[in-house]
Each structure stands twice: as structure tokens, then as C-alpha cells.
Design brief:
The chain is of the alpha+beta class and 177 residues long. It has one domain. The chain has eight helices and nine strands. The protein has a three-stranded antiparallel β-sheet with strand order 6-7-8, with no helix packed on it. A two-stranded antiparallel ribbon has the order 1-4. Helix 4 packs across helix 7 and helix 7 runs antiparallel to helix 8. InterPro entries: PAR1 (IPR009489).
């Protein structure tokens, strides 16, 4: 009995030590995308040119606050289930035009288990005048109609990308990690 209490105490101390604050600027580039700082602000991957003139990537804190989630780094399981890529700088509404992406985002494995990614794309879709739950419902029954609905919303002609500070940016580019 005494030994089990000691093991429990030691294990709980170990967990306390591993649950530190999430600070975007201290995250490696390969964990930055889809992370939320302890302050509740989204982390974003940004590219820059280093001293040697080579492109490199860093993690920064955006101005975008996420309600109800703080100090969170998205799991690799959710990244894979939702079909997103941690190595992209910025996100774009163009992703909705790929039926495979929308199918993965709307899949139960993503939509029901990965609230951080779903919230991010929900807000991006809303900015394009698309209601993500309705798009997902159409995706389940008629994937081609879902694409037509998105195209008729006006989202397709001018792709929108959100930069690290919540503003409009250039189309996303892949980062080499």
C-alpha cells in the first residue's frame, strides 16, 4: 500500500514537470502549426531569411485568441486525421476546394476529435461566407454539391490566406522541416 502511494506521488510529480507553459516562440518549427499558447493565442509558423541568406522558419504568437483552449499542441493523430500539414506557412481557403481535404476535415476522426483544427477551419470558412457544419453535411452525402456550394459562395475566385497576425497574406508556402 505504501509503495503504491510512493509510485503514485512520483508519477504525479513527473506529470507536473512535463506540463509546462506553451510559449510559441520556444516551440520548434515542427510543432508550431496548430498549437495554442498558454495565453490562448494561436501559434503561427513564419518564414525568414537567416544570416547566411537561407530560408528558415520560426514560431511566433499571433493576435488571434482561441476561446476555451489554451496551452495546447495539436496531436500528430489529429494532424493526420484532418489532412493538414504542420509545414505550411499560413492557411488558405483554397484547401476547401480539394474534395479530399474537405472529406478528411469533415470525417468523424477529425471533426469529432480535433476541436482546435476544426475551430481554425470553421473560422476560415466563415470568413468566406461558408458554414462549415453545412459544408460537412453536404460533403457526407454529395461531395460534388459541397464543392459547388463553396464555388457559388464566391470563395474560389480570390483565395484568402490568413497571416500570422490575422490579416490577409500571400498564398501559403511549404516549409522544409
Amino acid at each position: 500500500m505504501k509503495m503504491s502511494f510512493v509510485l503514485f506521488f512520483a508519477f504525479s510529480m513527473f506529470l507536473q514537470g512535463t506540463r509546462g507553459e506553451v510559449i510559441c516562440e520556444t516551440l520548434p518549427a515542427n510543432l508550431c502549426s496548430f498549437a495554442i499558447a498558454s495565453s490562448g493565442k494561436r501559434c503561427v509558423l513564419e518564414n525568414y531569411i537567416d544570416e547566411e541568406g537561407k530560408p528558415d522558419y520560426t514560431c511566433k504568437t499571433s493576435k488571434v485568441v482561441v476561446e476555451r483552449i489554451a496551452g495546447y499542441i495539436e496531436s500528430d493523430q489529429c494532424v493526420n486525421a484532418c489532412g493538414v500539414d504542420r509545414s505550411f506557412v499560413g492557411i488558405s481557403s483554397d484547401a476547401f476546394l480539394a474534395p479530399q481535404f474537405t472529406a478528411r476535415l469533415c470525417s468523424p476522426a477529425c471533426y469529432q476529435n480535433c476541436p482546435n483544427i476544426v475551430d481554425l477551419y470553421y473560422n476560415l470558412a466563415a470568413g468566406e461566407g461558408v458554414y462549415l457544419p453545412a459544408l460537412c453535411e453536404k460533403q457526407k452525402t454529395h461531395s460534388h454539391r459541397a464543392m459547388l456550394a463553396l464555388l457559388s459562395s464566391g470563395a474560389a475566385p480570390s483565395p484568402v490566406a490568413i497571416d500570422s497576425f490575422g490579416g490577409i497574406a500571400d498564398a501559403p508556402t511549404p516549409a522544409s522541416t
